[in-house]
Design a protein that fits this description.
Chain lengths: 114, 111
Amino acid sequence: GAGVSQSPRYKVAKRGQDVALRCDPISGHVSLFWYQQALGQGPEFLTYFQNEAQLDKSGLPSDRFFAERPEGSVSTLKIQRTQQEDSAVYLCASTTGGGRTEAFFGQGTRLTVV
Amino acid sequence: GESVGLHLPTLSVQEGDNSIINCAYSNSASDYFIWYKQESGKGPQFIIDIRSNMDKRQGQRVTVLLNKTVKHLSLQIAATQPGDSAVYFCAENINNYQLIWGAGTKLIIKP
């Protein structure tokens, strides 16, 4: 596609509900990143994939967060038993290589937990 | 984390003037830095990058300056336009892939 596509754009979840956020990276991009952005702050790293391999998941806040990229293209970030502190914008980015190439970001999914 | 601040600094400039946005980074071992622009409701957009073996890099209407001695980056935007209104973030690259982001500066253009 023309850019990184994320869906849904907005998600309202009741506390305790499970959610799944989808990222379609630019076709052919090897690397995929998930970031969490709280209101008024910079994005914070969650996890990094190279093809289907999850090379770093050190930024995932708890074991309620899980990410996958089974075929090395589309990725899903799943949050189980959502809590209010999970409310944020979740950004996905993809690059042709590692981190020293231009990262293209999607518009993000704004998650609100009520 | 290393991100800083719940209060977003704001820079207000007159249309047509030059803007200078500053950023302090934290890791003296970082050797790659990027400036991003984020408009409301959108994801960050790459503006310009610089490696630590340089102290200046120019793009179209933008210049990035790097001072490794004091761990400081700046982004200069020439002849600021209304479309430049956004939040600007600097980011440092660590581990060859992970980005650590600064707090961001909101740029407001006065007509």
